[in-house]
Design goal:
By secondary structure, the protein is mainly alpha-helical. It is built from eight helices and no strands.
């Protein structure tokens, strides 16, 4: 890609992540192009970048500047300490060889990330901990719907 070229992909987060895990040199150009495209989107939103776009940037940062830089920038992001950000940050930590940090981060957000945390525990050989985690019940009762009720068919 040429400098300033746009980056177009049909791929979702998982596909981009898989492509970036391939450390062949041609992806470096695509990474820079992807970051440039996200910079353009951020500029078009008045310089604001909500987590819905930042999490796409996170693996690109990790691939180009390193996992530590990606994690630092994610934690500095206004949404970086929210439960919805934990899984993305934990993935970067885990893939950078910091599985214990990933487990500690996700542990603060159970039950939201219970299954992801269990996978990381299994990777660490902590099978009993993973099984116990998956067998836990959510202590919060399900929320009751208090909105309007409609008995008419939507069709």
């Amino acid at each position: 890609a040429e400098p300033g070229a746009t980056f177009t992909t049909w791929a979702g987060g998982a596909e981009v992540h898989l492509a970036l895990a391939n450390h062949l040199a041609p992806w470096r150009v695509e990474i820079r192009g992807g970051l440039a495209h996200l910079d353009d989107l951020k500029a078009s939103r008045g310089g604001e970048e909500e987590w819905d776009l930042f999490w796409i940037r996170l693996p690109l940062i990790a691939a180009s500047a390193g996992a530590d830089e990606a994690v630092d920038r994610a934690r500095a992001h206004p949404g970086g300490d929210a439960p919805y950000a934990a899984e993305h940050i934990a993935r970067v930590l885990h893939e950078a060889g910091h599985p214990e940090e990933a487990v500690a981060l996700l542990g603060r957000h159970v039950p939201a990330h219970r299954s992801v945390l269990a996978n990381y525990l299994i990777d660490l050989g902590r099978i009993d901990d993973a099984v116990a985690l998956l067998q836990q019940r959510d202590p919060r009762p399900p929320a009751r719907w208090s909105g309007p009720w409609c008995s008419e068919s939507p069709f």
